[in-house]
Specification:
The protein is an alpha+beta fold. The protein has helices at about 1-30, 35-45, 75-85; strands spanning about 65-70, 100, 115-120, 130-135, 140-145, 150-155. The longest helix has 27 residues, at about 1-30. It comes from Streptomyces andamanensis. InterPro entries: N1-like, Ribonuclease/ribotoxin. It holds the Pfam family Ribonuclease. Keywords: Hydrolase, Nuclease, Signal.
Length: about 160
C-alpha cells in the first residue's frame, strides 16, 4: 500500500516544487536593481527609497541620496510645500532666504542657488529643525535635523 502511494507523493512534490520555482523566478526577474547604500541605510528608519519598484526613475540630482515622496512627508512639510508652490505668504521672515549649504551636504552650486523654508514643528517654541530646501532647477530637499542629513523629495 505504501509503495503504491510513493509515485503519487513524488508527483505531488514535483508539482509543488515547480510552482515554488516559478514563483521565485518571477520575483527575481523584476527590473529593480539592488538597493543603494543610502536607501538601505534609511529604510530601517522609514525613509527608504519610495521610488523603488514604482516605475518612477530617480532624477539625476537625487541619485545617491536617500529619497522621500511628497506623500510621505509630515503634513507640516506638505503645507510648507504648498506655500512654496503658491509663492507665499510665508509664516516666518526667514522663509525664502538663501541657503548657504555651508555643511556641503547638498551638491555644490554658486551662492544663491538654494533657498530654505521652515517646516513647522508641533510644540516647538522656535522655528525647530525641519526645513525644505529648493534648488533653481526644481530640486527639493527635506531635513528634519537642521541640515545634518537631507532626503531628496520626489514629486
Amino acid at each position: 500500500m505504501l509503495l503504491r502511494s510513493v509515485p503519487r507523493l513524488f508527483a505531488g512534490l514535483l508539482v509543488c516544487l515547480s510552482v515554488l520555482l516559478s514563483v521565485l523566478l518571477a520575483g527575481c526577474s523584476t527590473a529593480q536593481g539592488p538597493a543603494s547604500p543610502a536607501s538601505s541605510r534609511s529604510a530601517s528608519s522609514g525613509h527608504g527609497n519610495p521610488s523603488a519598484g514604482s516605475g518612477t526613475a530617480t532624477p539625476s540630482w537625487a541619485r545617491g541620496m536617500a529619497t522621500v515622496r511628497v506623500s510621505r512627508l509630515p503634513s507640516e512639510a506638505r503645507q510648507t510645500l504648498a506655500l512654496i508652490d503658491k509663492g507665499g505668504p510665508f509664516p516666518y521672515t526667514q522663509d525664502g532666504v538663501v541657503f548657504g549649504n555651508r555643511e556641503r551636504r547638498l551638491p555644490r552650486h554658486e551662492r544663491g542657488y538654494y533657498h530654505e523654508y521652515t517646516v513647522k514643528t508641533p510644540g516647538a517654541r522656535t522655528r525647530g529643525a525641519r526645513r525644505l530646501i529648493t534648488g533653481q532647477h526644481a530640486e527639493l530637499y527635506y531635513t528634519d535635523d537642521h541640515y545634518d542629513t537631507f532626503r531628496a523629495v520626489l514629486r
